[in-house]
Specification:
By secondary structure, the chain is of the alpha/beta class. The protein is built from 15 helices and ten strands. Helices cover about 35% and strands about 10% of the residues.
């Protein structure tokens, strides 16, 4: 008679999960992955554990494993990307995610999650076209104007409108493109700007800024203090307007408010309102998103922001951007690197150090850095 393996008790698994979480929070990602694997072997349906393990794998830069593990995101979405219908052979159109040479000849690419995700991963669409793939891309219609500045730019479909797509054999999601293209980490970095601002809008907003501030005797800094309030991580990602007060102390500074939906009451109540200029209500208010933001970013010295879609826009344009993030379970894409990142050469990441550091203290460190430079 052979001994049967003893399954861990529920209490043991709960303890293991807590240990894995602590190891990940402390930056000991190898340990965290090893423990998550033990837990998941016993609880395969533990979705949050799979998501946490994926993040740890990204922080270890074990990219092939991380991209595979990242598929768990579809089980966390209320409405995951979906394509119905059949190809010309009468079979359901299959999703392709991993690199299987040759690439599909006719491919539909679906955006997913937020606008910032779409802006970030749009850099890989020209790679598909240059590889000879006949690409169609479904994205939010508000991004059409911005994404048409890609070179080359693929045909765009309104992702929020159900439609019939012809001449497509396979489909994939935009965040799977690095895996599909089998790209190494060094090719994730956008070494050149891959989006462009409209010259007419650039001239208009530059004239607006000149009228507002005239001769400049100090830096002009764009800033954003909060993101999408519907995002589940928003309470940790967003700051307060008053947290940016240290930037207002930089000699001669002008702060340009890029915060959509900022109210007059908010601005009037802050201690540095005399340093702030704001675009009028026409700013980014049309059918297209971000076109005015892209144009005005060309006339400021840098953007200081929490983790929002605007940091992706600034990075895609190669505008200098200082991003403030919490060190408590930050987004997977920012890994565990201080100041640097693998996506945007003009972005500097400022993490809370230690975890209980306030955003105001981070803003103070940023202000000190900018004053020295």
């Amino acid at each position: 008679m052979t001994d049967q393996p003893v399954k861990p008790e529920a209490a043991d698994l709960a303890t293991a999960i807590q240990v894995a979480d602590r190891e990940q929070a402390a930056g000991r990602f190898e340990n965290a992955v090893a423990i998550y694997k033990v837990v998941l072997a016993q609880i395969p349906a533990y979705v949050d554990g799979r998501a946490k393990m994926a993040r740890a794998l990204f922080c270890l830069r074990r990219w092939p494993e991380a991209w595979d593990a990242f598929d768990i995101r579809f089980r966390l979405m209320d409405v995951p990307p979906q394509v119905n219908g059949r190809n010309r052979a009468g079979s359901p159109r299959p999703i392709v995610r991993s690199a299987r040479p040759p690439l599909p000849q006719r491919l539909l690419v679906m955006s997913e999650q937020g606008m910032g995700d779409t802006i970030q991963f749009a850099r890989f669409l020209p790679r598909l076209i240059e590889a000879g793939v006949d690409v169609q891309v479904a994205v939010p219609q508000k991004l059409f104007g911005l994404l048409r500045t890609l070179d080359p730019s693929p045909p765009l479909l309104a992702g929020e409108v159900p439609s019939s797509v012809t001449n497509v054999e396979n489909w994939t999601t935009m965040m799977d493109l690095p895996r599909l293209l089998d790209l190494p980490e060094e090719e994730y970095l956008a070494r050149e700007p891959y989006l462009r601002a409209d010259p007419v809008r650039v001239a208009r907003w530059r004239s607006w800024l000149d009228d507002k501030i005239g001769e400049r005797d100090g830096p002009v800094i764009a800033f954003v203090w909060r993101g999408n309030p519907q995002h589940k991580l928003d309470p940790k990602r967003s700051a307060r307007l008053e947290d940016f007060a240290p930037l207002a102390a930089i000699p001669g500074v002008t702060l340009v408010c890029f915060q959509i939906n900022a109210t007059d009451e908010e601005i009037d109540a802050c201690s540095f309102k005399d340093k702030i200029v704001r675009p009028d209500e026409s700013f980014d208010s049309g059918l297209d998103a971000f076109l005015d933001s892209a144009a005005l970013l060309q006339s400021v010295d840098r953007l200081v922001s929490v983790d929002t879609s605007l940091v992706h826009l600034a990075g895609a344009l190669h505008c200098p951007v200082e991003m403030m993030i919490t060190n408590e379970w930050p987004d997977w894409r920012w890994l565990d690197i201080d100041h640097e990142n693998v996506w945007y050469p003009t972005m500097k990441i400022w993490r809370r150090q230690p975890d209980d550091e306030t955003y105001a203290a981070i803003a103070q460190r940023i202000a000190a850095s900018l004053t020295k430079s």
